[in-house]
Amino acid sequence: MASSSSSEVPVAQAETFPDGTTDHVPMRKRTYDLRKPHITDQPITWTNWWQHVNWLNTYFIIVVPAIGLVASYWVNLQYKTAIFAVLYYFFSGLGITAGYHRLWAHSSYKASLPLKIFLAAGGAASVEGSARWWSSLHRSHHRYTDTEKDPYSVRKGLLYSHLGWMVMKQNPRRIGRTDITDLNDDAVVVWQHRNYLKSVITMALVVPTLICGLGWGDFAGGFVYGGILRIFFVQQATFCVNSLAHWLGDQPFDDRNSPRDHVITALVTLGEGYHNFHHEFPSDFRNAIEWWQYDPTKWFIWTMKQLGLAYNLKTFPQNEIEKGRVQQLQKKLDKQRSTLDWGAPLESLPVVSWDDFVEQSKNGKAWIAVAGVIHDVGNFIADHPGGKALISSAIGKDATAVFNGGVYDHSNGAHNLLSTMRVGVLRGGCEVEIWKRAQSENKDVNAITD
Amino acid sequence: MASSSSSEVPVAQAETFPDGTTDHVPMRKRTYDLRKPHITDQPITWTNWWQHVNWLNTYFIIVVPAIGLVASYWVNLQYKTAIFAVLYYFFSGLGITAGYHRLWAHSSYKASLPLKIFLAAGGAASVEGSARWWSSLHRSHHRYTDTEKDPYSVRKGLLYSHLGWMVMKQNPRRIGRTDITDLNDDAVVVWQHRNYLKSVITMALVVPTLICGLGWGDFAGGFVYGGILRIFFVQQATFCVNSLAHWLGDQPFDDRNSPRDHVITALVTLGEGYHNFHHEFPSDFRNAIEWWQYDPTKWFIWTMKQLGLAYNLKTFPQNEIEKGRVQQLQKKLDKQRSTLDWGAPLESLPVVSWDDFVEQSKNGKAWIAVAGVIHDVGNFIADHPGGKALISSAIGKDATAVFNGGVYDHSNGAHNLLSTMRVGVLRGGCEVEIWKRAQSENKDVNAITD
Ligand code: HEM
Ligand code: HEM
Ligand SMILES: [Fe+2]
Ligand SMILES: [Fe+2]
Ligand SMILES: [Fe+2]
Ligand SMILES: [Fe+2]
Q: What is the pTM of this model?
């Protein structure tokens, strides 16, 4: 039944679309017909709800862990079994994160055959579907993030993205098409897919039971803690990549969609918590790019590389990463900027002649010209940090030079404040005073009137 | 000798400059002549160094505390005296921060007579000069921050800004001119200035000694701990506003000059540590604008307001504060942006005709046109997160639509990456393909050659 040679695997294919993507087709059910109506075409009612539930998944995700919890009441947790369960937890977790996710779904590095087998075994031990099924859906998730075609869109609710999408049947036509020709060419992926149930029972239950049983005589503990309860924890943890990572945290690279970065998600998911980065740079073998962030999956892949078992580790150029960060900061800043009052636009102000400006200032208006714009500083004289005398001395004058360093080089904040006091624009701009003086001193300068 | 009426105080004035500022002139030394040569005009040598030292200040800042430290060896610290010394520390510290600094130097609020007397007494108790002298120098410091005219410029070294400027004589002509007419009109300021030595001895030493002595019989402890050592701590703490606050921390509002925000400085200086904000908005009665920042001086002023002892508390409009913050962030961002590679500028690229583009793509070049620009994706095909098939299918074509949502709505990061792959500009821009197709289908569209 199983074939481990990649070239001649007779994979069931849907019609191939010209761009190389295909509808997702399970390899086991040859009779499956995409054109037949699907149960999800009908609304959920009191009489058909049981047809909407995916009972197999419900059994694996909810019923079995419940049994395990009850069983743990009678089964004593031994010290050695506890240690083993934790180690096996990491093994099966890495199968999902380093294997299913970063290797197969995103091809972010290349793995040698032994490493592939190790990861496929770990993936099976965590009971979350085959690598082929998982990666195919995950590619749809990236391509159609947050849309109707996203298999686990967080827009349908946190619980839906966490496990609702597995517990309820999904219409395979709804889920976005992706190109998985590379997975169909991967012998380990195809073998694991074809022998999925066998692999799961062996890796998830038989192996932990045997290790604890033959190792230190704790068959029951191995089954309950190393098997069932460990499965439950790994599942809930890795499900968080689809739920929590699209719900909790910051968006340093892109805020168009839901993916977010948060250290809590990272702690829970063996480092998959920097999910905003990951959706932006999915083919990077890292999820965390800072050394101090928690990404054990990255450390694992790096170690495999040192051991010669992994190679071609892909990273996005740092320049591109920084560009993304800068642009997102810019976006946030622009948003903030647009909520502030930056003063009356110059084109909305009346144009005032120099003589009018001087005249009004003599008649009690506290007007000061700076850079061709007239400002009413009346309400500010008493509050001026530089004292009343200096600011009052500039009334009715062009204070461009004194304001900009002649007497005091005012701060940014002072320039901002000034812009809120605008009342008019000088006809002819800020050089008007110099020009007027030149004119009165040097009679052959021609007066130009506009 | 003392006059408490403000209108007829015969204050010694230097020549008044037309803008209302004056050189700083001590009120006590009537004989003082600004035109005489000053010791600081001569370089420090082995023979004249003692003339450069300001022995009075050295005595108050260094000798007396040293004596106190030695004396504390023989004087037992009593519980009640310790409590009193801490309270008296806050009283004298607030005299400087709420009094000398925020009230008199910056007029950031108005105080009733009892509060003024309280603050002037506290200021005297901390032995840092008179309010008039301190405020005048402090105004120079704000107006000429970091320049030669700044009395305690941090550019001359951290130690200089901390106490070097007091221990060494200063040329009064070097220090920037400021307008202190309002201080000369303030009766409390003038009285304290005229009776400075008396005030200091009373408030800094006599009062603490008497309180501890008459209160619980600890004359010696009152003198050593409540007096001398407490003075030392208050001095060192408040000196930090001139040194540490210009040296340690962030610059969220302006980075042209040295002032910085840091919580450590705030903790040491009764809240004066948000000094970047303060230099930008000096007439704000607050230094910390967030509720969770440590600014007990602000809380003190606010409490005085509730008690009816302070009024006209000035704040800068929040809009102006946010504008300053946004602009500084923008500045930082622009700096970061300029260090990154944003791809070859379009004007530096060769112009390629559509036919050449198609031709070259057929002859092995992996060229893709997006938005009128030709990109060489050859080195990226194997790394493309969306798979080889999709990206290859666009070679030799205009992929503007598929790239921008037709097949996949690429992220910011993808657009950035694309810009690094530029090799040419299409003659006629991105509509060229549509136009060519229209032309071949509809012969009456005219071919325009440029
Ligand atoms: C026209 C409207 C004016 C506005 C809105 C304004 C605003 C300000 C502000 C906000 C400060 C605080 C420090 C800073 O942010 O840089 C300041 C300080 C100062 N201003 Fe003005 N100013 C104006 C006019 C003037 C004029 C005309 C003069 C001089 C002729 C002047 C002289 C000074 C000086 C010397 C300081 C420094 C005082 C200190 O920081 O202690 N200002 N001004
Ligand atoms: C022309 C140069 C191209 C560049 C530089 C590029 C770059 C990228 C990048 C960086 C991603 C990762 C996700 C993201 O950042 O949005 C991506 C994903 C993708 N690209 Fe491209 N792309 C190119 C061309 C194309 C073309 C022509 C197509 C389709 C005809 C395509 C289809 C896709 C798809 C479907 C994905 C989603 C895969 C996933 O995230 O799992 N790309 N591309
Ligand atoms: Fe995701
Ligand atoms: Fe992913
Ligand atoms: Fe300062
Ligand atoms: Fe200040």
A: 0.76
